[in-house]
Amino acid sequence: MTPLSQLLPGQFGKLASLNPERGVDQRLMALGLLPGMVLKLIRKAPLGDPLAIEFCGQVVSLRLAEAENLIVDVSADCPIQRPRQP
Amino acid sequence: MSTPDAGLLVALVGNPNTGKSTLFNALTGLRQRVGNYPGVTVSRKSGTCDLGDGQKVELVDLPGLYSLAAASPDEQVVIDALSGNIAGDRRPDAVVLVVDATNLLRNLFLASQVAELGLPVVLVLNQADVAQEQGLRIDTALLSRRLGGVPVVLTSAWKGEGIPEVRRGLADALSRRTPLKRVVWPADIAGALADVAQAAAADTGKTVSSADAQRLLFDTNVSTAERLGWTLERREKPLRAARDRVRNSGYNPMAAEPLVHYAQLRVALDGVVSEGLGKAGRTAAVDRLLLHRVLGPVLFMGIMLGFFASVFWLAKFPMDWIQLGVDWTKGVVAPSLEPYPMLQSLVADGILGGVGAFLVFLPQILILFLFIGILEDSGYMARAAFIMDRLFSWCGLNGKSFVPMLSGFACAIPSLLSTRTIEDPKARLATAFVVPFMSCSARFPIYALMCAAFIGPLYGPGWESLVMVGMHCVGLVFAVPTAFVLTRLVLKVKPQPFVLELPRYQMPKPRDVVWRMWQNAAEFVSKAGTVIFAITIVVWALSYFPRDASVAERIRAAHPTESAEKVKARAQAAYVEQSYMGRFGKAIQPVFDPLGFDWKITVGVLASFPAREVIVSTLGVTYSVGEGAEADSQDLRKAMQDAKWPEGPRAGTPIFSLAAVLALMVFFALCSQCGPTIATLAQETGGWKWAAGSFVTMTTLAWVVSMAVYQVIIRLT
Q1: Is the CB of residue B286 less than 8 Å away from at least one CB of chain A?
Q2: B318–A contact, CB cutoff 8 A
Q3: How far is CA B151 from CA B4, B66, B131, B579, in A?
Q4: Which terminus of chain B has fewer CB atoms gathered within 10 Å of its CB, N or C?
Q5: What ipTM goes with this model?
């Protein structure tokens, strides 16, 4: 179990838990980022923050501080569900 | 803008970046703003849409959004509009739901929420051409059946394909009145929703729709409760009980809505989309370059420098032509009015001066909006925000503040309009507040005059350009701490999370970009233009009256040997000195005395409050070198270099000492001297409170910093 903020660029993870009380997580859930969803950290911005993550066939940017509470499982099978590049 | 009340009203709803606005343009024939940057549409835009069978409906383009959870003002507008809670607006008779055909699942979440309102729906799968390129095949008949039989149409609004089908679909939806299939809530959530609806209805005596109940139960935002008048004391207990019921059934109440919707949408979409062979999009490859760790910022700087340089230099030529045109008109009109000096002055200095003063900004505004439009529609704007966010987040702004702040160096007015692209109300307000600090092009003439007259001759061209650059940074240096103080201490608004979609790159549609540029320019002319015009006339009158003929005669008698032209200039200076403006300037000169300004500069400063570029021509008048003084005017430079304090402790020393020169430039760098900016700020922040705050903050800051500069340097030199 790793915070999303510690993923390396190019690394996949399966979302294990988020905090539905937080505004950021509510936004992400509306975009389809729900527990069990596979996501990929595409890259960090040149200054290291924010991050660009890919899930559900879309690329979304969020701040490092906001990504700390998103816990992902990097050991889980993250195969086939690999999102299509838009 | 609106059709007769009897007509039908249809709302256009969809996620950002779905081509919704392009579709709106295609359906109504009304060209309007199209964005590729999430959340562009903020104001209500509507037009008449022909359904093809002679029937006409009013189509309203609602802000793009991802969810009905009312977290931002945009989302609130959509909920209110769809439930008929906007004053003066009816509840729509149907909804056109625009979704991105390449990402049905995420887009249908909003559709599924809208379904809860029970309105007839036509589902438009836009960007079908891109989906086809990617090898996606969509079974629209199957999708229609799964969603309760609503019309489903494939379109490519960019290419203009599928538009007649949307019209037919809409006519069909209006006649059959088929709503989108609603989500089936698990028993306990359904029960909790019913409990909430019942409690709210009992407490408020109002009808509470199922959509209202969902917002009450699922959202942390209290806007629905406030609209219903359901007070905190009354709602707290029933809401907690209902949320506990949801929690006990195994759902977090804050996550239940997306979980249930998405789970059921996955089932509904099963077998609808089949993936064939297709080309992968180029977006990922382009991003590898444009968001590269090293190349990304380099290219970003290049693009922004190019953007900024073009605004500045491309606009220079049309601005010169406008100036020439205004001067030419003056030259033609003024002589014919020679017998009526007051009318002549009113027309030449008041009216033509006023028209010229705002027309001259038009080229910059057009070019600025053309570039912003291209940046937005191409998808690069979101990347710019991504790259810049880190530099701005610490002081409460965000990456999207960058473009308005950069364009502020050309002109604050279009920059203020472009803060609309920032969804977070707090960051938006803070950005709008700091934009007027940026050293706009109207500050250039006074810097140029002072540098050329004093810094250059005394210290050489090296210092001259250094001071020039330094002056352009003064505003920025003070703007950032101002933003910090404002967002940390003054604004109590909760900041919005900075969750930003990086959309697919797309070729901007020239028609849309040009139309948007035109719309913005028209708005500027109608709103700011009238303000500038009115202010110019008022300032003209204050510096023209009273006008007693004896003043000119006295000057003529006192200087019998001088040329007629010189006498005329002296007379004009004498008139200004005894005008209302002159008297006022002399009266409050003591206020500006600690800054090293004499009464002539004070008059210039006062006359410049409506429009700061007026300072150069006002100094031309008060230093009696005649009107029409330019920054490169030799006479004016000479007159200023020779000016000495006539009396007081500084008698005999030059008025324009290094300290006074720097203080004057710093004052103009920081002071709020632009009527149209204040007017636009009031319009964009929804009231005069922030406009007044900006005026007071900037003007006070200008006085304090300028005073400090004068007092320190005068002691050092």
Answers
A1: no
A2: no
A3: 27, 22, 19, 72
A4: C
A5: 0.92
